[in-house]
Amino acid sequence: MALSFSLAPNPKWYIADLTGKPLAGGYLATYSNLDHTLLNPVFTDASGLTPWPYVSVPNQGATLGILFDENGAQGPFYFQLNSAVPQQLYYLEVYDSGGVLQWTIDNFTPGSGGGITPIITTVVNITNMVTNSPMLRNKIGDVAIATAEFLKIAPGAHSGLAQTPANAGLILYS
Q: How do beta strands 13-14 and 73-74 pair?
């Protein structure tokens, strides 16, 4: 039986709630994927000597979880893998600060590292078809902007702050 401890893909985990905001004071419960009631601890170190401290998840009885900070972050997490039982992975449950289940992941494994997926960027040339938009107002270069391009269809939120003949001589404070 060879135990190994693998760092999750993201050493510092960030968890969001169901609306996309940081899950401040949330909990991560880690179980065996073979038995969703059997605690399968994660560790703070690569040698597996120090398990993360688990605390009771509010309103969940005996459920234990790792408490996340006010920014919805915690880590690093080293996941234990056992070569004698390779099918044993992790079942993860995420709770908010009140103990409401947010989501679960079954058969989670941190992976073995290795390659990455290349990022491919496609450049698309666009023509700005909205007059007096922020893109037009912030036109860069020495080319003068024709007066016809300043036709207002829908003024932006800060249009009143632009230096125009109407507000020339006014001192604008920020």
A: antiparallel
Least Cα distance to 53 among 37, 71, 74 occurs for 74
The number of residues making up the chain comes to 174
Rounded Cα–Cα distance for residues 13 and 17 (Å): 13
Contacts of 42 (CB under 8 A, 6+ apart): 30, 51, 52, 66, 77, 78, 79, 80, 90
Cross-strand partners of 29: 93
pLDDT tens digits for range 96-123: 999 999 989 999 887 644 444 445 556 6
Q: How far is CA 85 from the centre of its chain?
A: 32
CB 89 within 8 A of CB 107: yes
Buried b (16+ CB within 10 A) or exposed e, 83-115: eeeeebbbbbbbbbbebeeeeeeeebebeeeee
Helix (H) or strand (E) holding 66: strand 64-67
pTM exceeding 0.85? no
